[in-house]
Design goal:
The structure holds 3 protein chains of 3 kinds.
Chain A: H1 8-16, H2 22-40, E1 43-46, H3 48-63, E2 75-79, H4 106-113, E3 117-122, H5 156-163, E4 169-174, H6 180-185, E5 189-192, E6 212-217, H7 220-230, E7 255-259, H8 269-284, E8 288-292, H9 300-315, H10 333-344, H11 347-360, H12 366-386, E9 392-396, H13 412-417, H14 423-428, E10 432-439, E11 445-452, H15 457-471
Parallel strand pairs in A: 2-3, 2-4, 7-8, 7-9
Antiparallel strand pairs in A: 1-3, 4-6, 5-6, 5-10, 9-11, 10-11
Chain B: H1 7-13, H2 20-37, H3 74-78, E1 84-85, E2 88-91
Antiparallel strand pairs in B: 1-2
Chain C: E1 3-14, H1 53-65, E2 69-70, E3 73-74, E4 77-80, E5 90-93, E6 100-109, E7 112-125, E8 129-133, E9 143-147, E10 154-160, H2 167-183, E11 196-206, E12 216-221, H3 224-243, E13 252-256, E14 261-264, E15 277-278, E16 285-286, H4 289-297, H5 303-312, H6 317-324, H7 328-341, H8 344-362, H9 373-384, H10 390-402, H11 407-413, H12 422-435, H13 437-444, H14 450-461, H15 468-478
Parallel strand pairs in C: 12-13
Antiparallel strand pairs in C: 1-10, 1-11, 2-6, 3-16, 4-5, 4-15, 6-7, 7-10, 8-9, 11-12, 13-14
Chain lengths: ~475, ~100, ~475
């Protein structure tokens, strides 16, 4: 039976009705990930041994009707910046090539109680810094739709894994679009939840005030199932929140805003067309549509590239060769630390650390970081007032379809610009989702992004699911079955 | 921009040793980015620092009770140490 | 040239919470390394800080006790610097929004009240401990070993304004701050254990100048004695440099206990630039009025309040200061004994002199259970009423500390009650006069100091039971002196 294209709910139905077993699913998943690995390199590790046992235990639970929930026996891929106890967490960095985490991230503890299975750890841009999964110390990942192209980043490994059906769904992390952009490039759903609704404990921090873990999946429902399993207040994360979800209409009573600034220069015609397609569907269904303007979005890349590097310059200071990870010796501790960091970090990571160090340094703080903080606050206020008149904001997820491997590696700024549409949601802590809408003229997936106000994650998922049905994208990259 | 960008000092603060080639390459990359973010300097901002929230949702901190919770074992804590001896992490001399 | 020194002091006090500042690892006092650790306090990737309510409460207590204004909407900052015993290579601290600001601490100098102005009171987390193998300087050191048990232990930092003028005031300030921390029960306050650590910023400028001179930071002072000496040395060093027309370099210097000098610490290339910024892992900390009022209500009597109460009993400020720095039971004993004796000076002297002296001699830290405060007031009263001699009082006290008995029982058993009946004493006095006619003659001829000898003879013939005052009085009467 071809189980790999099924949704989590469909798979669970088969398990419950004894028409398929988790171990059968796991074998299919493992075969697919192993056979696609050479062409895609989506994974940094695959956990075959322990998983077969876990899958068999799951078989047992279903046969005894002791299964715990929708994720029981479902193989998920985990981005390799999320700690799983007793497994390597490398962040695709030489710095952590030998680091074995002695503890679980909260999301992993939560998935453990759901009895989910982890297929392996997925490739990413080193320390989640990048938009193409080319900045990995362990080799780049390729797009399953066309291996000349990047899968996006930084959660490119997770996206390539799900798109090639090497896992049923995956966890990614999103700091400036790292879930939504690769999901869009790979024809998948990528959901970045409201900041603070999913614990960051055990997620190796890039920029703490922006990072959020979320699912990459084939469908909105799969994303919802994973989100409901991993979200919730965590006393180990001081930024985790305990608030109730806010319900919003997701039928034609909802008002839809088209973000003017994300339909202008710098956005390809093809990307804009996908938004138009979605708007036409909504118009036909009787939704109230209006164009809205958030002028600060134009500055979001500038704000982001001061705040994220500043936070990362401190977050990555702990990688010093003293307590774990790579050590390159020196005559003194200070030399050892400098040598270790020189050897352990790749170019992009160094660039961002140095940029952040500079933005915080004496004499420049007010001009750079201080200003960015205040501009961010103003952007949050802009969103608040827009959400008084709109329920959902629609824009392209990415300015273009996926680009070719090597195309943007020599120009950091051009690479940064590809995050233009996704960064604002991180700056404002908003829930945002990318859903696939169609294929470009070069047969590569395109998607649209929908944002809503904080704590309306469930409504956003409901709204997206409605759109998903109307769009009926339902396409898979070819060439990955045996 | 680039003339006030003292890459040597910044690298020292960030504790990363850089070759001269790297210094030159990174300086020029960073100058381009800094020129771009310069767009912010024209922005009129009146927000007081006391009005700035750390949390994007403007949440306040919740304090935790002073009650012990289980920690790592000694062996777990040292399990990744590049060098350890007698239960301690060992590094090259750090005296000034 | 007339020069004046100005000193500011930064003090770190280790709080006696059960768990660490940002994780719930137990605070341990042990030589066994690396046994109380978690992902957060060794800075494992992905670990996050969760602040300790009790530590914030303690810091607020200290801020209120020093009269600081409480910052209602505060935040935490990261102070960035690389050091192997700092796991994250940044320390979570507070920068422009500390818990408390603009307070003052009352101290006592030479029987006078004085005040040291406090600039700020804020939270910090402690680092791990480094031990250096080898012989000291970097060239000979072979390696450094690290124990992170202390990493993340909560500290409160108290920074004075640059207002202290001498080492004497500096020492009095630290003594007062230490006592405050102990009375607030927020720290053990043991200097020898590093519970309380201090650095001094010292500058010297012409007396008439309104501006401060270049400041030099002095580190590594481990005792009050080294604080005093380091300050005195540094003032002298800077003064003579200025008098010789040299300029002072802004730097950090190390107090060398064995050489009794300060030496320049080799400064790292590029000056310290800590790149403080708000910690994105910790949302803004809002201290509600309810919280602050609750903390305020829990304030115990403070050292300066104790001093005021002691002065009301009649003690001078200097003695009151000594008692205010004593252990709590001594202070309580003082008030209980004073209530009975109404004699502040005698009560003070007996407690701080005899009682504590004997306890030291016997190497005991607290009084035995049976020792009631009434015993001490009884002894003081018996002496005051001439029923026993001062010397007998000491003997009785010694017995009371060691045996479960009463002052009366001891006095009776050792026959220490004095003869106070005048006619009986007159009889003995006349006897002694008869036996010492030559001495009496010399006294009458003006050799006053021989009166003492006669009193001694009288007490001796009585077998020690005569009150010397009364003996002298009757002797003078008999000899018409």
């Amino acid at each position: 039976m071809d189980l790999l294209n099924l949704s989590i709910r469909e798979l669970n139905n088969l398990f419950v009705n004894k028409k398929a077993k988790p171990s059968e699913l796991y074998s299919e998943v493992f075969d697919r990930s192993a056979s696609s690995e050479a062409a895609l390199h989506a994974h940094l590790s695959l956990f075959e041994e322990t998983n077969l046992k876990k899958a068999k235990n799951s078989d047992q639970r279903f046969s005894n009707s002791e299964n715990v929930g929708l994720l029981d026996g479902i193989p998920l891929a985990i981005k390799d910046n999320i700690n799983i106890k007793n497994e390597k967490t490398t962040c695709s960095s030489k710095m952590l090539s030998n680091f074995i985490s002695p503890y679980n991230a909260t999301v992993i503890s939560k998935l453990d109680t759901e009895q989910a299975i982890y297929t392996g750890k997925t490739n990413l841009d080193e320390f989640a810094m990048g938009s193409s999964t080319e900045n990995s110390a362990f080799g780049l990942t390729r797009n399953p739709w066309n291996t000349d192209y990047v899968p996006g980043g930084s959660s490119g490994g997770s996206a390539a894994s799900v798109a090639s059906r090497s896992s049923i769904a995956a966890l990614g992390s999103d700091t400036g679009g790292s879930i939504r952009q690769p999901a869009s490039f790979c024809g998948l759903v990528g959901f970045k939840p409201t900041y603070g609704t999913v614990s960051r404990y055990g997620l190796i921090a890039f920029a703490s005030s922006l990072d959020q873990i979320g699912p990459i999946s084939k469908s909105v429902d799969d994303a919802r199932i994973i989100y409901s399993a991993i979200s919730g207040h965590d006393s180990l994360d001081s930024t985790s929140i305990n608030d109730e979800q806010i319900d919003m209409p997701f039928d034609k009573n909802a008002t839809i805003g088209i973000v003017k600034e994300l339909m202008e220069d710098g956005i390809s015609e093809e990307s804009k067309k996908e938004v138009d397609k979605v708007i036409n569907i909504l118009k036909q269904k009787g939704f109230n549509i209006k164009e809205v303007s958030l002028p600060l979005i134009k500055l979001s890349i500038s704000i982001y590239y001061l705040i994220a590097p500043a936070e990362c310059s401190a977050n990555l200071a702990r990688f010093d060769g003293v307590r774990y990870g790579l050590r390159v010796d020196g005559k003194t501790s200070y030399e050892m630390m400098e040598n270790t960091r020189a050897e352990g970090f790749g170019d992009e990571v160094k660039r961002r650390i140095l940029l952040g160090t500079y933005a915080l340094s004496a004499g420049y703080y007010d001009e750079y970081y201080g200003k960015a903080l205040r501009a961010r606050k103003k952007m949050v206020d802009e969103f608040s007032s827009i959400f008084k008149e709109c329920d959902y904001l629609i824009s392209p997820t990415t300015p273009t379809e996926a680009f070719k491997a090597g195309e943007k590696t020599s120009n950091p700024l051009e690479m940064y610009m590809s995050d233009l549409c996704t960064i604002p949601a991180n700056l404002a802590g908003l829930p945002a989702i990318s859903i696939p809408t169609g294929l470009s003229s070069s047969n590569l997936p395109l998607g649209v992004q929908i944002m809503s106000k904080p704590l309306t994650d469930n409504s956003l998922l409901n709204f997206s699911e409605m759109l998903e049905k109307e769009l009926d994208f339902n396409r898979t990259p070819e060439g990955w079955s045996k | 921009m680039s003339e006030k960008f003292d890459i040597t000092n910044i690298a020292k603060l960030a504790s990363i040793s850089l070759s001269d080639d790297e210094k030159q390459k990174l300086s020029s990359d960073l100058s381009v980015i800094l020129d771009h973010v310069q767009a912010l300097s024209n922005l009129e901002l009146d927000t007081n620092i006391e009005d700035v929230y750390i949390h994007p949702l403007e949440k306040e901190l919740v304090l935790d009770q002073d009650v012990e919770k289980p920690s790592l074992t000694h062996d777990e804590a040292l399990s990744n140490a590049p060098k350890a001896s007698d239960g301690k992490f060992i590094v090259p001399p750090s005296l000034e | 040239m007339n020069l004046k020194p100005t000193i500011g002091i930064e003090t770190h006090i280790e709080l006696n919470t059960n768990t660490k500042m940002f994780c719930r690892c137990k605070v341990v006092d042990t030589e066994e390394p690396n046994i109380s650790l978690c992902p957060t306090c060794i800075g494992l990737p992905g670990a996050l800080p969760v602040p300790n309510e009790k530590a914030i409460r303690y810091i607020t207590l200290l801020a209120l006790a020093t009269g600081c204004a409480i910052t209602k909407k505060g935040m935490f900052h990261r102070k960035n610097y690389f050091y192997p015993d700092l796991p994250k290579n940044y320390q979570i601290s507070q920068f422009d929004l500390p818990v408390g600001e603009n307070g003052k601490l009352e101290i006592v100098i030479d029987n006078e009240k004085d005040y040291v102005e406090i600039e700020r009171v804020h939270m910090e987390e402690d680092t791990g401990k480094s031990s250096h193998e080898g012989t000291g300087r970097i060239d000979s050191a072979t390696s450094t070993s690290l124990d992170f048990n202390r990493s993340g232990v909560p500290l409160v930092e108290i920074v004075t304004k640059p207002v202290i003028q001498s080492s004497k005031v500096a020492v009095a300030y630290i003594e007062e701050l230490r006592q405050l921390a102990i009375d607030l029960d927020i720290s053990e306050g043991k200097l020898e254990k590093g519970n309380l650590r201090f650095d001094a910023n010292i500058s010297v400028a012409p007396s008439e100048s309104d501006e401060l001179g270049t400041k030099v930071e002095i580190k590594n002072m481990n005792s009050l004695r080294s604080l005093e000496r380091a300050i005195d040395y540094e003032i002298k060093r800077q003064s003579s440099a200025i008098e010789n027309g040299e300029s002072i370099i802004q730097e950090t210097r190390h107090w060398d206990e064995s050489k009794e000098t300060t030496t320049s610490m080799r400064s790292k290339e590029g000056s310290a630039d800590y790149r403080y910024f708000s910690d994105p892992d910790l949302p803004n900390m809002v201290l509600s009025d309810e919280f602050v009022n609750q903390v305020k209500d829990s304030l115990p009597p403070l050292p300066h309040e104790n001093r005021n109460k002691l002065v009301e009993t009649g003690l001078d400020l200097s003695d009151a200061n000594v008692l205010s720095k004593s252990e709590k039971w001594i202070l309580e004993l003082y008030f209980e004994v004073f209530d009975n004796t109404k004699d502040s000076k005698a009560t003070f002297n007996w407690i701080t002199g005899e009682l504590q002296g004997q306890m030291r001699k016997l190497e005991i830290k607290s009084l035995p259970e049976w020792f009631s405060p009434a015993f001490l007031s009884d002894v003081i009263k018996l002496i005051d009423e001439n029923k026993i001699s001062f010397t007998s009082g000491k003997v009785i006290l010694e017995e009371l500390i060691q045996k479960d008995t009463t002052p009366d029982d001891v006095a009776k058993k050792l026959d220490l009650y004095q003869e106070n009946d005048e006619s009986a004493i007159s009889e003995i006095v006349n006897e002694v006069i008869k036996d010492n006619q030559d001495i009496v003659e010399r006294i009458k001829n003006g050799e006053d100091k021989l009166v003492g000898f006669m009193v001694g003879q009288i007490i001796k013939s009585s077998g020690g039971s005569i009150n010397p005052g009364i003996a002298k009085e009757i002797l003078s009467k008999e000899l018409n002196l």
